[in-house]
Specification:
The structure holds two protein chains of two kinds. By secondary structure, chain A is an alpha/beta fold. Chain A has two domains: 195 residues, 3-Layer(aba) Sandwich (Rossmann fold); 72 residues, no CATH class. Chain A is 37% helix and 24% strand. Chain A contains ten helices and nine strands. Chain B has two domains: 40 residues, no CATH class; 225 residues, Rossmann fold, CATH 3.40.50.11310. In chain B, 25% of the residues lie in helices and 15% in strands. Chain B contains nine helices and twelve strands. In chain B, the strands form three sheets. A seven-stranded mixed beta sheet of chain B has the order 1-9-8-5-4-2-3. In chain B, strands 7-6-10 form a three-stranded antiparallel beta sheet, with no helix packed on it. In chain B, a hairpin with a 6-residue loop joins strand 11 and strand 12. The N terminus and C terminus of chain B are likely disordered. The chains are: A alpha/beta, B alpha/beta. At the A-B interface, helix 2, helix 4 and helix 5 of A face helix 7 of B. Bound molecules: adenosine-5'-diphosphate (ADP), magnesium ion and zinc ion. The site of magnesium ion has 4 residues of chain A, from helix 1.
């Protein structure tokens, strides 16, 4: 079943002109329009996510991965001008056009975003448990014991020591904060989690454990995921299918194994060779 | 023993906060009420308008009040004027009162339950002199009551108006200092952060432990700071017969709870809103066990100094109870068993103790 379908997604920073699209992208070798200086962070992006599937988005820094992921997670950036269509199973119309209430309900219940920067996603003054509870409380849960139980279960699932549940999130290690973000994203049983650069800021040893944990929870919960990373090995580990981005465009897509073993685009080949 | 240990400002500690008065208007010491009144011409009020404020200002304040009544619990801005009182001493309340008072009205002023405080007396005198109103200390006798930190023990009626003085207008400031972010939260009824605050309260204390300024939903829409009244008084606002106007001078905001509006303190289904408990205690003066009591420290007969006793915080009702210990809180009504705060003695036991989960 197709969970999410996106068509012709676009995010740009700047006034825009009639030549922006033609003058940017892979062929043009830039994401900045030479005529009006607008940055076309992403454009002409079509994609779909099946229920329970993991879609990887890979590309170098600045290629537009976060811009695309944020559109898909219905995150608004006030500086950006956006266009395109996002359709979601069980909802009518374009999710990019919905009002605040609907968007808030979707973001609370069905589509969760794990921010690249921990500070955008967590309130460090609250306890770790409180950060996870916020999601449940915002969704209207009014039973203290139910919230408490659910937070406990999520701490166990994401392998955070229960003894730390009631400590301020500011006292957590980077790895634990990332786990709290993931626990928070899972709290309301969403259908889709968007994970932006899950390994950023973590030690290499911690990275592997967080990714393993995420892969296990993702399968257990059967939740679909969009995993964004500049790091090919992250996408290779987690993703069923992979999109490769460059200069704001999707330049290659396919099953992860196929993309890795038989890259069609020259850029993908360079990416793979530079990792190996 | 009471559970007065707090996570928040106790009902008596916001004065020092208020005194910092950062913006707008000149703080004037309370002593200058005398100066202001002396400067009035003997023949009447030459140079001063009726009720001190000019008609345009009063009309503006009333217009804000109407808006506040139309959107219960929503904070409405108004042009707060300098008053001959220090900010934080009820300048918002007195502007609301003076804008409402007419010569026919009887006015009562209470400061933390007492009519006798210097501050209450100053406000009363300003109204007496400039608005030519009669004043009273009897709750049942007043048309308009201005109060800091309390709602009287005797049931307020449809004809009465209560003005509460407000130091901090936004309940959300507890969880986020940004007023801009909090305005957005109110606009979208997005109170998740406040719920986390309550959740963490229960984690820490096993129950919701907020002493005053208890976060309260008004008409199922806006989260309201009911001013630093004790939890004891919050249920009195629910489906009340009277109008409550809450006014802040320093922050220049007015909000209101119109009569018969649903007012619900935030609480969990399995962690009720509770009021203060005074186990085994009675007022040492009148013997009441169903009123909000405060500890009073008095010099005792024995040599080692002080003894702590409990007394009614509402001094005017305490006086009546000393005359008649059986006097119900709704003695002045033609109905009986009126639901008004905790444990109204002649009230229906099942409705007397109201929780937040109703
Ligand atoms: N707020 C912004 N204002 C202007 N340009 C931006 C802004 N955010 C991102 N960009 C630009 O958009 C492009 C894509 O950025 P981003 O989506 O963050 O890429 P990635 O996540 O792949 O690193 C970059 O050129 C970046 O500089
Ligand atoms: Mg990024
Ligand atoms: Zn352009």
């Amino acid at each position: 079943m197709t969970l999410l379908e996106a068509e012709n997604l676009q995010t740009r920073y700047g006034p825009g002109c009639s030549q922006c699209i033609a003058s940017t992208g892979d062929g043009a070798g830039t994401n900045q329009c030479p005529h009006c200086d607008t940055v076309v962070a992403c454009a002409e992006a079509d994609l779909g996510v099946e229920a329970g599937e993991v879609l990887g988005i890979v590309g170098e820094s600045g290629s537009g991965k976060s811009s695309l992921a944020e559109l898909l997670a219905l995150e608004r950036d006030e500086d950006a001008t956006t266009a395109g269509e996002v359709r979601y199973a069980g909802h009518d119309g374009n999710l990019l056009d919905v009002d605040y209430e609907t968007r808030h309900a979707l973001r609370t219940g069905e589509i969760a975003l794990v921010h690249q920067h921990i500070r955008d996603g967590l309130n460090l003054e609250f306890t770790g448990g409180g950060n996870v509870a916020e999601k449940l409380l915002s969704a209207g849960n009014r039973s203290y014991e139910d919230v408490r139980d659910r937070v406990r279960t999520l701490f166990e699932a994401t392998e955070i020591p229960l003894a730390r549940m009631d400590d301020p999130a500011s006292t957590y290690s980077g790895g634990m904060q990332r786990r709290v973000q993931i626990a928070r994203a899972l709290a309301t049983d969403p259908d889709l989690i968007v994970l932006d650069e899950p390994t950023t800021g973590l030690d290499v040893s911690v990275q592997a454990r967080v990714l393993d944990m995420f892969r296990r929870v993702q399968r257990e919960e059967g939740v679909a995921a969009i995993v964004v990373s500049h790091d090919l090995s992250v996408v290779r580990l987690l993703a069923d299918r992979t999109l490769v981005m460059r200069h704001g465009r999707i330049v290659e897509s396919g099953l992860t194994d196929r993309v890795m073993e038989d890259p069609h685009h020259e850029y993908t080949q360079t990416l793979i060779n530079s990792v190996i | 023993m009471t559970d007065h240990t707090t996570t928040d400002d106790a009902p008596s500690d916001d004065r020092s906060f208020d005194d910092s008065a950062p913006d707008g208007g000149m703080p004037v010491s309370t002593a200058s009420v005398d100066a202001a009144l002396e400067s009035l011409d003997d023949d009447g009020l030459t140079g001063y308008n009726y009720a001190y404020l000019d008609e345009h200002t009063k009309r503006e304040v009333r217009r804000s009040m109407l808006k506040a009544v139309a959107i219960p619990g929503h904070q409405v801005p108004y042009a707060s004027r300098p008053m001959p009182l220090a900010r934080g001493w009820g300048t918002g309340g007195i502007q609301a009162s003076l804008s409402l008072l007419g010569p026919e009205d009887r006015f009562k002023v209470i400061d933390q339950g007492a009519d006798e405080s210097v501050n209450a007396a100053n406000i009363r005198r300003l109204a007496e002199t400039t608005a030519e109103v009669e004043t009273t200390t009897d709750t049942t006798d007043a048309d308009l009551i201005q109060s800091r930190h309390r709602i009287p023990e005797e049931v307020l009626t449809a004809g009465q108006r209560l003005v509460l003085q407000v130091p901090i207008t936004d309940a959300l400031r507890k969880v986020d200092p940004s007023d801009a972010a909090n305005r957005r939260r109110h606009a979208h009824k997005n109170y998740g952060k406040m719920w986390v605050h309550l959740y963490e309260n229960v984690v820490e204390y096993g129950e919701i432990n907020i002493a005053s300024r208890y976060p309260t939903m008004v008409a199922g829409r806006y989260l309201m700071d009911p001013s630093p009244i004790p939890r004891w008084d919050v249920p009195k606002l629910d489906d009340a017969d009277h109008l409550t106007v809450l006014a802040a001078g320093r922050e220049a905001r007015i909000y209101a709870v119109p009569p018969h509006t649903a007012v619900e303190p935030l609480a969990f289904e399995d962690r009720d809103f509770t009021v203060e408990r005074f186990p085994e205690q009675a007022c040492h003066a009148c013997g009441s066990t169903d009123t909000y009591l405060v500890e009073v420290s008095e010099e005792s007969a024995d040599e080692d100094g002080f003894e702590t006793r409990y007394a009614c915080n509402d001094s005017s009702f305490c006086r009546k109870r000393r005359e008649n210990p059986e006097l119900p809180k709704d003695h002045h009504l033609d109905r009986e068993g009126v639901d008004w705060g905790p444990e109204t003695p002649d009230g229906d036991a099942s409705t007397a103790q109201r929780g937040g989960s109703e």
